């Protein structure tokens, strides 16, 4: 079985760096005409250079996901240049935080405006195109924080939990048009957004010990999931949230299996 995405047209938001950049490059290498957008021009310039060097097909646009007018311009431009939109990856996000007692109102607003409202505005602009095509895949970045929140993540976790519910609502609305809408919840993927892999060794170990698969997730892990969900193979999946966290919820004490495996190794 082969995942064939060639010739499809995708928009990936927040494609300037991190997971979004990797998703954009992976889709493009799979033959997808890939439009990357980001709020930072210098990151779009870097991505444009990488696309040119690797002779990948697509375009890069400066676009703040909070700006409905700019989104409308970009969607119109993508339609006129490439004719359709098959895949929308709402990856752009921020993760600033603070305890409820100390959280600044502007931090709360930034999380809600970028993570949640940005996803809504992008969908609102792209849905008419996908409805007219009677096909499409919308993939929204939620987070493991939407399942179990971390300390001090009120703004972020609330916005991502809302992305999950928004995803289900939209999936319900778009069923008759064969447009599927799903979200995914990455666990711990080292990127510039976080400092997972830069923390003192002991703290890294404590975090990794919460995982059934005791390793950080990678941008490749997320991009592979996106490729599958965006493909024809995933045509019967909609309204779901895929947990891609290395098994943070699989078992109560992941360390027990590692102790048993160590004993096994000593005995063999
Ligand atoms: N890295 C993780 O462990 C992890 C875990 C769970 C969920 N996620 C989610 O995955 C997504 C990507 O995370 P990442 O780690 O690559 O983050 P990142 O900070 O490295 O990248 C985010 C990108 O979004 C862009 N962006 C920010 N605000 C924007 C706006 N208003 N409009 C357009 N673009 C904007 C940034 O410029 C940046 O290029 C986010 O939605 C994040 O919440 C990440």
Structure explained in plain terms:
The protein is α/β, with parallel strands linked by helices and 268 residues long. Helices cover 46% and strands 14% of the residues. Strands 3-2-1-4-5-6-7 form a seven-stranded parallel sheet, with helices on both faces. α2 (41-53) links the parallel β2 and β3 (58-62). α1 packs across α7, α3 runs parallel beside α4 and α4 runs parallel beside α5. The chain is globular, with a radius of gyration of 19 Å. Bound molecules: nicotinamide-adenine-dinucleotide. The site of nicotinamide-adenine-dinucleotide has 31 residues, from α1 and α4.
Topology, please?
Elements lengths: L8 E5 L4 H12 L3 E6 L2 H13 L4 E5 L5 H15 L4 E4 L14 H29 L2 E6 L12 H21 L4 E8 L14 H8 L10 H12 L10 E4 L9 H14 L1
Parallel strand pairs: 1-2, 1-4, 2-3, 4-5, 5-6, 6-7
The chain binds nicotinamide-adenine-dinucleotide (NAD).
């Amino acid at each position: 079985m082969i995942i064939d995405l060639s010739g499809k047209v995708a928009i990936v938001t927040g494609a300037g760096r991190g997971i979004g950049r990797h998703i954009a490059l992976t889709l493009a290498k799979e033959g997808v005409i890939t439009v990357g957008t980001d709020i930072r021009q210098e990151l779009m310039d870097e991505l444009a250079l990488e696309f040119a060097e690797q002779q990948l097909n697509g375009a890069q646009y400066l676009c703040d996901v909070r700006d409905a007018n700019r989104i409308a311009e970009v969607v119109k431009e993508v339609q006129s240049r490439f004719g359709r939109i098959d895949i929308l990856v709402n990856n752009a996000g921020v993760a600033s935080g603070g305890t409820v007692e100390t959280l600044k109102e502007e931090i709360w607003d930034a999380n809600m405006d970028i993570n949640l409202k940005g996803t809504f505005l992008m969908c609102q602009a792209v849905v008419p195109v996908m409805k007219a095509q009677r096909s499409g895949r919308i993939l929204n970045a939620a987070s493991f924080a939407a399942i179990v929140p971390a300390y001090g993540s009120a703004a972020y976790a609330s916005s991502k939990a809302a992305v999950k519910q928004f995803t289900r609502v939209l999936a319900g609305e778009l069923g008759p048009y064969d447009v599927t809408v799903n979200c995914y919840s990455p666990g711990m993927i080292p990127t510039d957004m976080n400092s997972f892999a830069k923390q003192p060794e002991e703290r890294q170990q404590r975090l990794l010990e919460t995982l059934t698969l005791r390793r950080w997730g990678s941008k490749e892990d997320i991009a592979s999931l996106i490729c599958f969900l965006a493909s024809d193979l995933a045509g019967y999946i909609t309204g779901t949230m895929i947990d891609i966290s290395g098994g943070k919820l699989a078992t109560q004490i992941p360390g027990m299996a590692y102790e048993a495996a160590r004993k096994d190794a000593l005995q063999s």
